[in-house]
Design a protein that fits this description.
The structure is a homotetramer. By secondary structure, chain A is α+β, with helices and mostly antiparallel strands. Helices cover about 25% and strands about 25% of the residues of chain A. Chain A starts with a strand and ends in an 11-residue tail after the last helix.
């Protein structure tokens, strides 16, 4: 497997859904950053399920414990290890379907690839692993904040309903993490409707990085789009990613898609942002704008045909349990975390954060 | 910079648009693969401009010379170095605009990042570098072909005109690399119309990998989507990438997006392919389906406002020269190359190609 | 920092001497390997102090807990996380000398590099971290054993006293891990003599890998000597490494140092082993022979001059506490672990262990 | 294979001894460094054979051509590609012995590993490849010189004869690259004596880095000893490496091997340098001192027994041709190059060279 991500700011995650614990080691955070459990908790709480009717009623009051790398309230430059214990989970329902390949899930591919798997709750392929990313991202976000960079993600579209107003302050005021209060209500309604019919919905998340300096990104093969794209596409259920005007560019003319350069506050910038803050793989200083599509949750109550891989016979499956009808709703903090990790890494690689300079 | 890509099958490219040469070193190809200049030339010819009215009339009869790694017509397992000499290019037109930031180009970001750049023809940021990728991809494609895997890319959409029929045999019969003969004609027309008004158009390319075995991909952080996405997003002008049903998944229900497992020819597969051949970051054995959006060419004759970074004053620019009005048309062989490199790498990483076993 | 090691078989360690815990994440072990806590414990016990008069009387009954990657007694191919809790350690004696730079230790360089450090017990620079390596090495050793490869390390020389007989069975029968019973007694005596005068001694460890197949190693830059050398030189207190005849080669003629090729049991091998099992950076199938020099323990009771980095004044230091007078004695299991990790990695990279094939 | 070395300052070499050319791509040199062919030539000339009776009489007037990455006499931050054309070499003498495994050479291991090889002149395993490293090292050395760091390597011992005086100015005044004029004469004599009897000799090279700042090195796994050791052990014929007092430490007491800290010119440093400028894997600011043992040249005229791998029968071999009787003599510039590459990489990784800041 490949469970590490990043070059100079680097995370390594581990753990299965129904194992003893999950966790992450963060390597490359410079010394001197004030860091406490509460910094990590704040982000974990944003991801936690059981917060509303539109998410799984499971209670995962994830608590991350910092086991290393922090001394007297500050990072020391050494690796920061965090562990989140798993609650005793009831694995019995997985026992029954352990030979049935849940459609849309990774059961089949893990079975083919590894020949042996922890089938309980998806094991390593479970979205539970993303809690470890969120914990790591909390550190990246704090490091970036020290350098004036903010990252915010929110739900842009669910089940065809689009947010038309972007008010950052609204995002965490509603259960669907939408920056548009009216759209949020419609989205909630759509989710509940799907849930009640044993079904699920997909959506689009938008991630914005504000105040990232011009000059981040390493062409030719670690362009900012490549690394951010790789990070976001690596999150469970993501099947597409776009930057700036994205797929709309297919329909534009060059005279419209090109963003004119202008001078503003004595600095060169662009008038519009079809380029999503990145040109030639390098940040321009404009907001970095990313969108990701999250497929509908694969675990649905509705009956589906599938195969029992032991018998090679067709069977019918109904994935019981307390599943999220719209995983997109829990996606924004995970996307923020991964984007933050990439940007922290690039800040280091571009020499804008000095790895060996004490943060004050 | 970061000019290497891949882990076990690894390429390193170099060279500027108006420098002496460009080239690539391919490391990790096993010994015994029959390889000659003609294998590389075939792919380079697919990328070459000057083939029709819809591309730049520049003649770049790229010839790659293999300088190492091949002995008696076969690879030896050692690095394969290829060089493509640049023709004497007229750099004078770039001299005039060397302080003007061409909108949509990387002039600004390279200037900010490196403080000094070879401004002639875009230097390292030029799409000319992609010829080196195509040369490397030719080797990857040949290696994959030995294992039954084929990769084909084509234009799916230009200026809002979509291919509705997919006939692989049509792709290289028309100038726009479209698998739908009728759509191709409309696309050509749209390109010429834009060209005549000094403008350019964008489009969407679809890349298909056939017969890739189930089991490729390394979760959690080198999922197939992450690595393919990173590779495709690293190609000039790409601003988005999607897999399978892609952004359409935002509007689907889970009961529809989930692909049912079935048994076919005694093998487990899926009935539909909304997952684009990848589940949990690992290939399922179904065709791998990728789409990328290519923005309209940035070099346009039409006047645009921009900034002179020496004077910090606004000026007007008209990018003269023989530019492509639709770079998307030359994109498919580059996309094929990058996808092939990723899949060759993953075939090695999954133990499906043995790095130390002589190919016969 | 850089706390990961390896390419396909990869470890990431974390933790400080006097922190809550130390640990390691092992990534890349194929699925199906039987693995239990006792496999890891056996190796940890070999490294533990407090086993005799020639080591520190500290009791570190290290217990590693496996938190992930193992299901129903077998590895699943997912990352294996192990945690070793630190006993409550008395940090008060470090408090007194926290501004004094202990000669031979990393206090000065960590202070200079990071600007802030956990000074208790050496923090991250402590040899305590090597327990995590030993835990990871236990897995590598078990994986190698499945493929017939054995690794054994022992003390070859202490304080000028050399082992002249190599009897593997003797190694763990004496307290100094020496394969020569008579030499062992003299070594013990020398250590105790140094200890009683508040001093310490150095030595040489020899590491042998038996039955490694011909063909391991990746020239030009990951030759087996490079990777084994890097691994061994990365262990605390090591200041030199040599292979086969090593530094003696400086005095030899080519006609003597060249090992003649012969045929034995129908296989090509060499008559002698001055090359230490590696030619051109690739294993030949002969025993791989490595020697490492371990400097005398830096923590000594004897008074030494040093600098207080706060006051920049000279002071005298006597490093109190229960320190090892001869760290070399605890070195062999650590060296075995690191050598095993390198060889497991190269077995995977050479395609001799298939990463995706279930071990049976 | 693995033909790339380094993380942020990274080289990729390619080419076979009797192929068309050899070369290197250097990635990661910041923009603005003045660089011309003469900078590279100077180093290549130090390595060239045919300079005296003690080296091969072959004439390899290597000329490196810079193909990219330099514009108007300065680096641009993009990859620097250099090519050295091979002279037409007579491969006929290798034709005769192509199935004979030359003792001490990599013929056997390359044959076993890759199953197919370019046997002419050793192909990729030839020391000819080191010319590419020297070319890359020239850039690293120039970059380090800009930051006040100098690297010098010289022959410390040949055939048991040791240099007892270290006068840097003498090194390139004699044919054996020895800093001790008297020892040099004896060494030359020993080499010629061996040569006349169809034999060869080995030796020890010492490499010193002056003015490297304190703080370089990335514990735990990229300690300076690990990375320098890996680099030096990767050079052909090296079988051991040591730092500071090296293997002598095995015989020392801690009270002697520990280097006392002192204050000098208001800076903390050490009184002695048994630690070779590195503590805890991090540079202390003292001279970095490395020694490497180079085995006697494997190609000797004297008859040796070996195996024909086609017939599996014993045969006798006498390696004819114009070979170096003491490859150690040509080793110092290669060692300087590799040490310089490691230190340049670590200067970047420690934030002491900013990758994105124009050098002035």
């Amino acid at each position: 497997m490949s469970n590490s991500f990043g070059t100079l700011f680097r995370i390594t995650t581990w753990g299965e859904s129904h194992g003893k614990a999950i966790g992450v080691v963060v390597d490359g955070c410079p010394a001197g950053l004030e860091l406490g459990g509460e910094d990590v908790q704040r982000e974990l709480d944003k991801r936690a399920p059981g917060q509303s009717e539109v998410t799984s009623p499971r209670k995962e009051a994830d608590k991350a414990e910092i086991l290393s790398g922090v001394f007297e309230g500050k990072t020391t430059g050494t690796p920061i290890s965090m562990v989140i214990c798993n609650k005793d989970a009831d694995s019995s329902k997985y026992e029954k379907i352990k030979h049935l390949l849940r459609p849309g899930h990774a059961d089949f591919t893990y079975q083919v690839k590894y020949g042996f798997r922890d089938y309980r709750g998806g094991g390593r392929s479970s979205a539970r692993e993303t809690a470890a990313r969120v914990a790591a991202g909390a550190i990246a976000k704090k490091l970036l904040a020290k350098h004036g960079i903010t990252i915010i993600a929110y739900v842009r579209e669910i089940a065809g309903i689009k947010a038309t107003k972007i008010d950052f302050k609204e995002v965490y005021k509603n259960d669907v993490r939408c920056p548009d209060r009216n759209a949020a209500k419609k989205m909630e309604h759509a989710i509940l409707k799907a849930k009640n019919s044993g079904d699920s919905v997909g959506g689009i998340c938008e991630i914005i990085a504000l105040n990232a300096p011009a000059g981040l990104g390493k062409p030719i093969y670690n362009k900012l789009e490549s690394d951010l794209g790789s990070a976001i596409l690596g999150i469970n259920a993501v099947k597409g990613v776009e930057f700036g005007a994205g797929f709309e560019l297919a329909k534009m003319k060059g005279s419209r898609s090109n963003d004119e350069f202008i001078v503003k506050n004595n600095k060169i910038t662009t008038k519009t942002n079809n380029h999503g803050g990145i040109l030639g793989g390098i940040s321009t200083g404009m907001p970095i704008v990313i969108r990701a599509v999250v497929k509908p949750a694969s675990s649905i109550l509705k009956k589906q045909h599938t195969i029992n891989y032991k018998t090679m016979k067709q069977e019918t499956i109904s994935v019981e349990g307390r599943h999220d009808p719209a995983t997109i709703v829990r996606f924004p903090p995970i996307a923020e975390a991964m984007a933050a990790i990439v940007l922290a890494d690039h800040m280091l690689m571009a020499g804008k954060i000095n790895p060996d300079k004490l943060i004050k």
